[in-house]
């Protein structure tokens, strides 16, 4: 009987400690409609799906599995129009009804107006 009580007590203690380890520590707040970045690192890409056909800058969101912010750039300078190019940029992200829906689960899509860009 004491052995059964001991196992029951250990099970209860273990259950509570496991629950604490699985807490969600990622910020899951709703995306914002616009924000600015300064000296952000990203990768140039090209979106040719859904009739968009424009260059983008993708930024991986640290601390996430699949978090990706995609900025659609209307006037990317010619020198930076190379897919896979690592860049440092500043600019303003804005939500737009003209933007396509995200392709990936953790992706957010914005229009991106650059104020500066340089090679990483």
Work out the helix count: 1
- Largest sheet entry: 5 strands, mixed, barrel
Basic shape? globular
Order of the strands making up the biggest sheet: 1-2-3-5-4
Under the CATH scheme, which class? Mainly Beta
Q: Which class best fits the helix and strand makeup?
A: alpha+beta
Structure description:
This protein is of the alpha+beta class. It has one domain (34-119): OB fold (Dihydrolipoamide Acetyltransferase, E2P), CATH 2.40.50. Helices cover 17% and strands 41% of the residues. The chain has one helix spanning 2-21; strands at 34-47, 54-60, 68-73, 86-94, 107-119. A hairpin with a 6-residue loop joins strand 1 (34-47) and strand 2. The protein is globular and about 30 Å long. Residues 2-28 have low confidence and may be disordered.
Précis, in short:
Helices cover 17% and strands 41% of the residues. It is α+β, with helices and mostly antiparallel strands.
């Amino acid at each position: 009987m004491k052995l059964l009580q001991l196992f029951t007590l250990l099970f209860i203690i273990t259950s509570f400690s496991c629950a604490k380890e699985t807490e969600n520590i990622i910020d899951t707040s709703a995306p914002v409609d616009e924000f600015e970045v300064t000296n952000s690192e990203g990768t140039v890409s090209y979106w040719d799906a859904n009739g968009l056909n424009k260059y983008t800058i993708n930024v991986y969101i640290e601390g996430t599995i699949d978090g990706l912010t995609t900025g659609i750039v209307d006037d990317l300078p010619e020198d930076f129009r190379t897919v896979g190019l690592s860049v440092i940029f500043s600019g303003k992200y804005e939500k737009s009804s003209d933007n396509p829906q995200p392709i990936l689960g953790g992706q957010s899509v914005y229009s991106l107006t650059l104020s500066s860009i340089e090679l990483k």
